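Quick one: structure tokens for this chain, please?
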Amino acid sequence: MSITLQSTLTCPKCDSVANETMPQDACQWFYECRACGVVLKPLPGDCCVFCSYGYVPCPPIQEGKSCC
């Protein structure tokens, strides 16, 4: 199974997009938008910012595992 490590995050406040590399073995709970400075946190029920705001979910979720 091929794991994608690149994801595009979309800021819910300003709609800016950023291509980011996801950590392969950890959750990322915070992300600061480069355009507006808002700090993104996972939505309820999601394990990380990539699962909430990214085009591709985090690597552990892609593998069918628990993220945290």
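Residues 6-57 form one domain.
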